[in-house]
Write a structure and sequence with these properties.
This protein has 6 helices and no strands. The chain has one domain. The protein has helices at about 15-30, 35-45, 50-75, 75-95, 95-100, 105-125.
Length: about 130
């Protein structure tokens, strides 16, 4: 009788770096509603993201973190796709900062940095892990 060995994907160093970046981005989304950005922006006369957008971002950040843990432990390609989807939706939610008038330049630079880090994280997370 022969035993079949199923090759399970392992998470490479590149994947782990991408997962750490994705987890940090997800964590920054999760704390978004607790920073009081909406109230601070209104008191300064500028308009920040509405609370429903911050809450949606927090949910996407939580999904990202859960999928990061799942991929780190199992090498699941489905988890990698979930990470990609949640990060892309999060970036799309931040995109109005580039087009809305009255957004401070520092915020636009911060959002641009988040977009670049997201693209880098996704490229690393979605790179093919080695089969054992």
């Amino acid at each position: 009788m022969t035993t079949a060995v199923i090759a399970r994907p392992t998470v490479t160093v590149k994947n782990k770096i991408g997962l750490v970046l994705a987890a940090l981005l997800g964590l920054s989304d999760v704390v978004g509603p607790f920073t009081g950005t909406d109230q601070n922006a209104q008191s300064e006369g500028t308009q920040g993201p509405p609370m429903p957008v911050l809450i949606a971002g927090a949910v996407l950040g939580l999904v990202t973190i859960i999928a990061v843990v799942l991929m780190w432990r199992s090498g699941s390609r489905i988890a990698a796709r979930i990470i990609a989807g949640s990060r892309i939706l999060s970036v799309l939610a931040a995109a109005p900062a580039f087009f809305a008038s009255g957004v401070p330049a520092a915020v636009v630079v911060l959002v641009a940095a988040v977009v670049v880090l997201t693209v880098l994280a996704l490229a690393l997370v979605l790179s093919r892990p080695k089969a054992v």
